[in-house]
Amino acid sequence: MRLIVRRLVPLALLLGVLPGPLSEASAQDTAAFFRQNCASCHTIGGGRLTGPDLKGVAARKDRAWLAHFIVSPRRVLDSGDPYAQQLLQEARGVVMPDVAGMTPQLAEALLDLIAAESALPKSQFAGVAVPTRPFTAADVERGRALFRGDERLVNGAPACLSCHAVRGVGGLGGGHLAPDLTKVYERLQGRKGLATWLNAPPTPTMQSLFAGRALTDAELQPLVAYFEHAATQGGEDPKTGLLTFVLLGLGATVVGLVTMDAAWRSRLVSVRRALVERSRLARS
After folding, report:
1. Quick check: 174 and 166 in contact, CB under 8 A?
2. pLDDT computed for residue 61 by the predictor
3. Which pLDDT score is estimated for 2?
4. What is the pLDDT of residues 132-178, one digit of tens each?
5. According to CATH, what is the number of the domain 137-230?
6. String of DSSP letters for the chain
7. CA 267/CA 262 separation, integer angstroms
8. Which class would CATH give 24-118?
9. Would you list the domain boundaries of the chain?
10. 37-65: buried (b, 16+ CB within 10 Å) or exposed (e) per residue?
11. Same fold, 24-118 and 137-230
12. Do residues 38 and 110 make contact, with C-beta atoms less than 8 angstroms apart?
């Protein structure tokens, strides 16, 4: 009998029959998926961002429709579904993308998570608290220092300047690997949307860079202040920094070539003179 039990228990765990740590881990995986892929556009009880607040969403639409929409938003929109078209209008034309790796089973798990979080007094996905007071010049300046890397981020993430530019950030500008962030405050519709995006960036590159190195609340607010200020400074960086960098590089190359020519010219002449003398003596 004991031998039979020892053989049946692993099989039951494999099939998910027995309750325990496996289901808890699955819930944690679903929460992590929501944080990485959904929290930049949706809160649960924190108000609207780009997409609607999902608290109590099952009371607004039946579960089958919600699961179908989560699996393929584009397909539901293309079908002309009236409720999907309403969501699109409320999102100002921003289309919810089809999420890589999404399956009907995962969609059901996300709906279970949303239902459980909706029942809590405050969900872990209620969003980031952002002050409504006017930001000070000191807030903006600290945000600039964090963006440039003059002040290191506490958890060790790279400075924004490594990949992004903001108009007026410095003589050489910022990085051009990723989008210009001069108008990111407007694109994400204000403080709350921007802070939520910074807290849980959804892009694969940002996720890999900030995995385990998330921004702290003390860093989020000055960065939001800096981006809010940048949005008032005109259009995006016209890439003058990149042009300056190229011109400086060309100038340095020319100076280096001239210096090398001056250093080696006399040496080559002296070597040639010695060879000519040696050849003349040999002939005589």
Report:
1. yes
2. 94
3. 42
4. 899 999 999 999 999 999 999 999 999 998 889 888 776 566 777 88
5. 1.10.760.10
6. -HHHHHHHHHHHHHHT-S-SHHHHHHHHHHHHHHHHHTTTT--SSS--SSSPP-TTGGGTS-HHHHHHHHH-HHHHHHTT-HHHHHHHHHTTTPPPPPPTT--HHHHHHHHHHHHHHHTSSS-TTS------SPPPHHHHHHHHHHHHTSS--TT-PPPGGGT---TTS-TT---SSS---TTHHHHTTSHHHHHHHHHS--SHHHHHHHTT-PPPHHHHHHHHHHHHHHTTS-S---SHHHHHHHHHHHHHHHHHHHHHHHHHHHHHHHHHHHHHHHHHHHH-
7. 9
8. mainly alpha
9. 24-118, 137-230, 242-278
10. bbbbbbbbbbebbbbbbbbebeeeeeeee
11. yes
12. yes
Which residues, including other chains, have CB under 8 Å from residue 158's CB and lie 6 or more apart? 149, 209
CB atoms within 10 A of CB 84: 21
> What are the structure tokens assigned to 208, written together?
């890999």
Residue written as token pair 């496996």 = 22
Instruction: Tell the burial category of 222 from Cβ atoms under 10 Å away from its Cβ (0-12, 13-18, 19+).
Output: buried
% of residues, the chain, pLDDT over 70: 76
**Cα 79 to Cα 121: distance, rounded to the nearest angstrom:** 37
Q: Which two tokens stand for residue 54?
A: 């999902």
153: phi then psi, degrees, rounded to nearest 5: -75, 135
Here the tokens at position 261 are: 């020519």
Q: Is the pLDDT of residue 93 over 70?
A: yes
Amino acid, single-letter form, for residue 102 = M
Q: 224 CB contacts (<8 Å, ≥6 apart)?
A: 130, 135, 143, 185, 191, 194, 195, 198
Six token digits for residue 271? 């070597």
